[in-house]
Amino acid sequence: MSKLKTRTPSPRAAAQPPTGEPSSANRPAGRSLLSYWRDYASVAPFFALFAAFGAIPLGYALYLSTQSWDGLSDPKYVGLGQWTKLLHTPDLLTAAGNTVLIFVFGQVPVVIGALVAAAILSQKRLRFRAFYQTAFFLPQVTSVVAVTIVFQSLFADKYGFVNNILSTLGLPSQHWLTDPWMMKAVIALMVIWRGFGYFLLLFMAGISGIDPSVLEAAQIDGAGPVRVFRSITLPLLAPTMAFVTLTGAISGLQIFTEPQVLFGGTGGPNNGGLTMMLLQYEYLGGIGSSGTNQLVRPDLGFAAVIGWVIFLALVLLALLNNRLLRKSFGGR
């Protein structure tokens, strides 16, 4: 029986591409990129919007921080003079301290309270869960200006509802809108009232994504509700916790509307409600921080420097937040 003979192609013939397909050496260099034009076109709107409203304004703000400009006359180059002006602006330390205190009094309690409330409302036996979610979320969609006006009426020094209640109970009235510490407390209460429902829904969404079998296994092993929450729910909520704390930090350090409306565009008596964003607004041409309804001299360059200070503080806070969460939840 004769053996079939196979012919092995030469290396040169094997290296040649199939008929009709050009080799990679002869293929035009730009063709591989052009073949993905549909993919690039689909993501182009994002990069266009980011460049128009993110990268370009950020770069212009950096350029503006080296200028002295009132917005009308020609800008004057001052180099790092605007940055050294930070050291000689007393209102800056006041605004930074007020912002940090309002952040601590407002954002920290609302995140902790929303987390605990989400764990309670996520119980299977709870009735009217949808009603509670809607009721808690309603303040988030309410106008900030309307909320501030309501709080202004509630905490007015002379005829406020809260002081009337205190007087009825035989307790002394408080100077809610004139005492520096009370002013911060009122602003923090507004932050808590508005942000509680938003953070609550985020935590409930994160809890709903946890596999129920993991929780059931822990309960079968004898773990109580507190142990399940501390050892299972919290570690698995690390991504949600990172998002909530970061967004809370951003909104907390950029608080503006509440004190601006509450105190008529100023920082209030003794600048007790002056925040970093409100200080920046004043150097953009807003009402002066002295509380006398007088305009400070507009300086867009110094306002840009204040904006950069806020931006760098948020970046550092985000890095610190990420580091603490990784350390607390085992590097998740």
What does this 3D model show about the protein?
This protein is 63% helix and 1% strand. The chain is an all-alpha fold and 332 residues long. It has a single domain (82-328), classed as MetI-like fold, CATH 1.10.3720. Strands 1-2 form a two-stranded antiparallel ribbon. α5 runs antiparallel to α12 (238-253) and α12 (238-253) packs antiparallel against α15 (300-328). It is globular, with a radius of gyration of 29 Å. The N and C termini lie far apart (69 Å). Mean pLDDT is 84; it is low at 1-6 and 289-294.
How many structural domains can be distinguished in the coordinates?
Answer: 1
Could you report the average pLDDT, rounded to the nearest whole number? 84
Largest sheet: 2 strands, antiparallel
* Beta fraction: under 5%
The CATH superfamily name is: MetI-like
SSE class: mainly alpha
Helical residue percent? 55-70%
What pattern of helices and strands is seen along the backbone? HHHEEHHHHHHHHHHHH
CATH architecture field:
Orthogonal Bundle
- Under CATH, the topology can be stated as MetI-like fold
Low-confidence stretches: 1-6, 289-294
Number of helical elements: 15
For the secondary structure, the number of strands is: 2
Distance between the termini: 69 Å
* CATH hierarchy, class: Mainly Alpha
